[in-house]
Design goal:
heterodimer, A: mainly alpha, 13 helices, elongated, B: alpha/beta, Rossmann fold, 6-stranded mixed sheet, 8 helices, 35% helix
Chain lengths: 310, 265
């Protein structure tokens, strides 16, 4: 309850700052529009206004400030505009029975979610396997780990087009696979690091105990190392799924994709419809929130069943 | 005293040496240790920190490898004995797996050693009764007190058929009252199971109360300064600690510790 209050307070503050910022951000656009409509604004020409500071413009044209909150193509849309656009492209489509039409963000979120989940699966599997190799083999520890770290220093935006070009070169049809690969590229790393830490978390006496039973390596893995690593794994998975979503959206951006949230952001940018961009952004954020919450829930259930009171 | 049968040596150490190579040069953890532990003995190792008492126990368990001399366990090398699962080891911390219930924790060695499910259940209920923890099998470790956790870890070491029990300061972290109680229980358990017990401790009264044989050790290098065969009877109520015999043995232990005083300051 206390936490909810804290979160709501922060949310309220953000929305308030957002609303306050809309006025100065949009005053110029509002005045341009008013001028074209034949209204009187000061200064009268666009050139003169460019020389004038935002604050002076607001002071001289107080009656036009409110126009900035209802523009079609604002620099910064007001929160209620974004909410409206979001509703128009999701809830309203559902009401109309067209939830999966190409104009619906639910459709695009679905496309993005699909690639995200494939990427997440691929990245998590790779991360876990690499972690096991690193923990059990000194050679893997010394050779794989540095490369894993270097892989994360390459900007994914630079790498994404190459992955797409290469995958079409080797004859992979469609965007699903390269998007999943880009997504996996971002998400395997937190899983790898968390799993290495988790698999190494058993203490020396715990390992000695197994030795006194003459337990085999496999038994040690399944009875001690793997269960010990689970709390670490879940924490990594939560970071990993958010990274996978970012990866998928990045994979949709530079590739001329026509569907997916990343494509919506790109198209919104190209056609100058900021409301579409913002709605897609929020759809992505909501999707990420849902995925992380889902994993958090899974973690609670799993750890409770394992008797760990978290 | 049990003299009806010829004593059989379970652990035999001859001129045992162990030197650790550290960054600050070699450390003599054990030097020229000679000791025989007979079947059914309750042997305590006592001495200040760094005297090698834990190291000796770990050598018996094949968790450390001596650098010189000879050591046999049940007539085999310690590593062979470990592979034959000749001993149960109780660590200073109970070390129960937090994700397993008490029953499942006790089953851990049984699962590893491939006992059948029915046999596992039977043994778990037997050892839970032995350490007085009936009815706690379904609890998770965090739901139990420190003393109960340590009893569960003893039960875990008793669950399979090792006739040697090695205990490394098992009650070191517990308060005096709990410790007295557990000592009493441990003696009863020893009498019932006729195991051979190696027991590391810091406490003179604990060593004297429990043991048939007390090994006094001193540090730098770790060596044995005295081996005392206890004249106390096998039946030992807690108030035996007020008898002159008990006090005399305790005295001798204290003298042994003082003689080996390698306190540098």
């Amino acid at each position: 309850m206390k936490q909810a209050l804290a979160v709501l307070t922060v949310l309220f503050a953000i929305v308030a700052i957002w609303y306050a910022a809309v006025a100065p951000m949009n005053i110029r656009v509002a005045l341009d529009q008013a001028e074209r409509a034949g209204e009187l604004v000061t200064p009268e020409t666009a050139r003169d206004r460019r020389e004038t500071s935002t604050w002076v413009l607001m002071a001289k044209n107080p009656s036009h400030i409110s126009t900035g909150y209802a523009l079609d193509r604002p620099r910064l849309p007001a929160p209620d505009q974004v909410a409206q656009e979001l509703w128009k492209t999701t809830g309203e489509m559902v009401v109309k029975g067209r939830a999966f039409s190409k104009r619906s963000l639910i459709y695009h979120a679905g496309i993005t979610l699909q690639s995200t989940l494939w990427g997440f699966l691929l990245g998590t599997t790779l991360g876990i396997l690499a972690a096991v190799a690193i923990v059990y083999s000194r050679v893997a520890d010394m050779s794989l780990m540095p490369w894993a770290i270097i892989s994360q220093t390459i900007p994914i935006v630079a790498l994404a087009p190459m992955i797409i070009v290469v995958s079409s070169q080797v004859g992979i049809e469609g965007r699903g696979v390269p998007k999943a690969i880009i997504s996996a590229y971002l998400c395997y790393f937190p899983v790898l690091v968390g799993m290495v830490k988790g698999l190494r978390s058993p203490s020396l006496p715990q390992l000695d105990l197994l030795k006194t039973y003459n337990a085999s390596g496999t038994q040690g893995f399944f009875k001690l190392r793997l269960p010990s690593s689970l709390p670490y794994l879940f924490t990594s998975l939560k970071v990993g799924i958010a990274a996978a979503l970012v990866g998928t959206i990045v994979g949709e951006l530079p590739t001329g994709a026509v569907s997916g949230l990343g494509a919506r952001i790109l198209i919104g940018d190209q056609f100058g419809t900021p409301l579409a961009i913002w709605a897609a952004l929020f759809a992505a954020a909501i999707l990420a929130g849902l995925l992380v919450t889902l994993l958090d829930l899974l973690q609670r259930i799993a750890l409770r069943r394992m008797g760990m009171n978290t | 005293m049990n003299t009806a049968t010829q004593p059989q040596p379970v652990v035999e150490a001859r001129q045992l040496d162990l030197t650790f190579q550290t960054n600050d040069g070699p450390v003599h953890a054990l030097k020229d240790v000679n000791l025989t532990i007979d079947k059914g003995d309750f042997v305590s190792f006592i001495g200040p920190s760094g005297c090698g008492k834990t190291t000796f126990l770990r050598c018996v368990a094949a968790l450390e490898t001596p650098t010189g001399g000879s050591l046999t366990v049940n007539g085999m090398t310690p590593d062979e004995a470990r592979r034959k699962r000749a001993y149960g080891y109780v660590f200073q911390a109970a070390g129960l797996y937090p994700w397993r219930t008490i029953s499942k924790n006790i089953k851990l060695p049984l699962e590893i050693m491939g006992y059948s499910a029915a046999e596992q259940d039977e043994r778990v209920s037997k050892v839970l009764e032995l350490v007085d923890l009936e009815g706690f099998g379904a609890k998770f470790p965090w739901q139990l007190s420190g003393g109960m956790q340590q009893r569960a870890s003893i039960a875990r070491a008793l669950a399979f058929d090792a006739d040697i029990l090695l205990m490394d300061e098992p009650f070191g972290a517990l308060d005096e009252i709990v410790r007295d109680h557990l000592n009493e229980q441990l003696l009863a358990l020893w009498a019932r199971t006729e195991k051979t017990i190696g027991f590391v401790t810091h406490s003179i009264p604990e060593a004297v109360y429990l043991s048939t044989k007390i090994v006094v050790m001193s540090p730098r290098p770790g060596r044995i300064t005295d081996v005392i065969d206890s004249p106390l009877p096998k039946e030992r109520p807690l108030d035996i600690r007020d008898t002159p015999e008990f006090i005399e043995v305790a005295h001798r232990v204290r003298d042994g510790l003082r003689a080996g005083h390698s306190y540098d300051d």
